[in-house]
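Q: Structure tokens for this one, please.
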Amino acid sequence: MHITRILTVSGLTLGLGLLGNMPVSAEGSYLGLGWGRTGMDDESAALDTAFAADGYTTSTSMDDSDGGLKLYGGHLFNDNWGLEVGYLDFGTFTLNGTESSTPFTYTGDVDANAWYLAGVLRVPFGTGFAFNAKAGFARWKLDAAISATVLDTTFRGQLDDSGTSAILGLGGAFDVTDALAIRVDYDRVAADENLDMISLSVQLRF
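A: Here is the predicted structure, written as tokens:
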């Protein structure tokens, strides 16, 4: 009788201990907000080439990095697979240039953003860590405000471009609690000019 009780209590204790050490399922919905550094393909050489084709000798420089914002939400159907929708604000990229023979100067500000829908692969490892990958489609938009000054006269124009391209992402996450995680991501939107973001996000599960 005593042996039976001991085995029963030991079994319950072991079972509860194993339950306490079982990883919490990631299945469910989540929302995240983050900030990061962004980048865009440097188009200064391409601009100089385009001006040269028209007979102008230009020197263009471009600031191809900025700070950006990331907002996303999704649902994991199990511990490994899910869908995610998000918005990426890549910030503003600037360019400046001069032409030596006319002469004239020009400046431009390019605002870039994208909405995306992607499938998500999650691979947990260790205690509270997970590797993330995503692939899907992004609807991107570029808004460029351009001005050129010739003989003290300034001309201004607006150029807009948009399209749908692939988005790819890699990253990792750490579960601070059952409901809170910290996530690091690298995302690339393959627009006419590649758009990149490395971000740090706070993610809430519910």
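A few notes: The chain is about 15% helix and 65% strand. The first strand starts at residue 28 and ends at 40.
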